[in-house]
Write a structure and sequence with these properties.
With 456 residues, this protein is an alpha/beta fold. The protein is built from 13 helices and 20 strands. InterPro entries: F-box-like_dom_sf, F-box_AtFBL13-like, F-box_dom, FBD, FBL60-like, LRR_At1g61320_AtMIF1, LRR_dom_sf.
Length: 456
Amino acid sequence: MGMILSTKCRKVLEMRDGGSLDRISSLPDELLGHILSFLPTLNAVQTSMLSTRWRYLFTLTTNLSFDEPQYFRFLDKPSSKGFKRFINGVLALHIVTPIQKFSLKFRRTYEHDYQHQHLLVWISAAILKGVKHLELDMSSREISLPNCIFYSQTLVTIDITTVIHKLDLKVPGLVCLPSLRVLKLDNVTFLDGESIKRFFGGCSQLKELVLLDCELGTEYVDLSALALEKLTLFWCRGHLEINAPNLTNLSYLCSWPNDGVDMTFLLKNPCSPSTLEVGFRSYEFSGHIPQFVLSLIRGAQNARELILTFDALKLLTRVDNNQLPTYAKLESLYLDYCCYDTWKCVTFWLANSPQLKTIVFNEGLLKDTSCDTEQNWHPSAKLAPFSSNVETIEVHGFEGQKSELLLLNYLLENARVLKRLILYKCSSMKTEDELQVSKELLMLPKASTYCTIQLK
């Protein structure tokens, strides 16, 4: 099996053969092993071809990274069997304990390429070496995890992603992960509610939890995570009652099928995260707004950052403003974009957020070309907080349409302390259009004498 040396390895080899003083090779073994730890394991192993001095230095690395796509890209005759032999050989020779990180990535779709026993051996070897950070990115059909992963005393982060086929997480009766701080699961299925309780019951120090496209069952499950500070739930299916009194950062995105939301949760203890992200992906809402959504928005009254997708904003237009509190600590508001139907909802936050400093439109300022008259933007609510506090407005995907300029005109006329209006133009804007838009922006009246307008 031929190996292609990386550019860095070739440079070291050329320097040695040219008679130059090889200062790197004179460094202590431990230091060289530490340096090689910053390379993918394949590249670290390639350095063994430099000289006898380098032959076994890769065995001293503190990070092990096995990336199948890289293996197939850099070897002249790659094969699945060769990749397995490569991993087995490195693990057999590797002598450093503990290791900082073990990363395994393979995307072969044929389950016979990576038999179950190989995965169990590789992951178990990492656990036995006292690994702190475990990263798995897999796509085989038949996958399960060794039981030792559930009672590792050293694991600080676990990041598991599966593609094509979900991983059925078989949780043993005992789970003890006293050092675990960060857990990310992508495309994973919990077999029942009891397994969820057992799993998270054994993660007493968990600070950050990310669940992406996970199946959590059909019944409400009590998830207790007393140390949890950051929670992300994206595109999951299930129902949770969350006891997380120290939660400060909450991100929630779900789809909205015809029979209701597919992921709901309740925060059991009074909790007001400082950062809240709420989003839905549906264009047709029917029926009543779920109570947990209202509770979530109301409970964010002490949030400093609020992130709302367009569909979440559209949903909230159904809510009577009297049902929502004043957001006394809100400093940053992030929106996808605005339209005439959601403008009333936007002005609610402008009028009821006395500490608001920054407004960001992530996907454009306005996507409603029917709004071409100035009077459309005059709300009934008084915008005194907006006028006297907002310092930065940022727009991504700015197109320079007439309706956008009218809305900007209204905002600039009312933002008395605005310092920066930053407009990131859309990729399709032509040079001649950019020049014309720049001229029109300069002509807009501004209530703030300190405001600068940047078109980028």
